[in-house]
Amino acid sequence: MTLSSDNQSDAFLGCAPHNHQHCIDDALRTAREQCIQSGARLTPLRERVLELVWQSHEPLGAYQILESLTREDGRRSAPPTVYRALEFLLEQGLVHRIASLNAFIGCPFPGKAHEGYFMICSHCSVAIEIQADTLQAQLHQLGEAHGFQIEQSVVEVSGCCSACRQAGIAE
User: What is the pTM of this model?
Assistant: First the structure.
């Protein structure tokens, strides 16, 4: 789910009713196409980890992913297996790491170089990545003004989504 600075909305899109299977299917199709184009190998395990990351709009930790894989195949998978799959997905730009949560979320803009700007509901844990061209330009201008060249920026903003506010959870 994405929200661009050109398409502002009051709805926190991860909470808005939608066909979530479409999000998963679109992410997997895009990942397959991108990996074919780049010559990267999207193994069944890597694809399954990506599918698990996209199962909701809530960031997942590596051990949550590991638990899901273990439940599915009945065998205990090793943590390095999941971390290697996540590292591959990060390198391909298919997921992002949310540092404040030590968790991962699917990237809705794979294949496009961009900065990571996230809004994270501190009540329901739903997170969305936004395109914030104005914020990105301002950060780079501030960097230049201080003689600093920004190579990468990730902004994580926590707060309360509209669904949680409407449900009275934030009070």
Answer: 0.82
For each of the domains in the chain, give its residue range(s) and CATH number, in order of start.
Answer: 16-107 (1.10.10.10), 114-171 (3.30.1490.190)
Q: What single-letter DSSP state applies at residue 60?
A: B
For residue 36, which phi and psi values (nearest 5 degrees)?
-65, -45
User: By the 8 A CB rule, do 59 and 104 touch?
Assistant: yes
What digits encode the pLDDT tens for the residues 88-134? 999 999 999 999 999 999 998 888 878 889 999 999 989 999 888 89
Q: Which two tokens stand for residue 23?
A: 């999000």
Residue identified by tokens 């990237």 is: 107
In the chain, the DSSP E strands lie at 2-4, 95-98, 103-106, 116-121, 127-131, 154-159
pLDDT band at 13 (very low <50, low <70, confident <90, very high): low
Task: Report residue 165 as tokens.
Answer: 């506010």
pLDDT computed for residue 113 by the predictor: 79
Q: What 3-state class would DSSP assign to 124?
A: coil
Question: Measured between alpha carbons, how far is 93 from 106 in angstroms, rounded to an integer?
Answer: 9
Three-class DSSP category at 37: helix
AA identity, residue 99: A
**Which residues, in sequence order, are CB contacts of 103 under 8 Å at separation 6+?**
59, 60, 61, 64, 97
> pLDDT digits over 137-146, tens only?
999 999 999 9
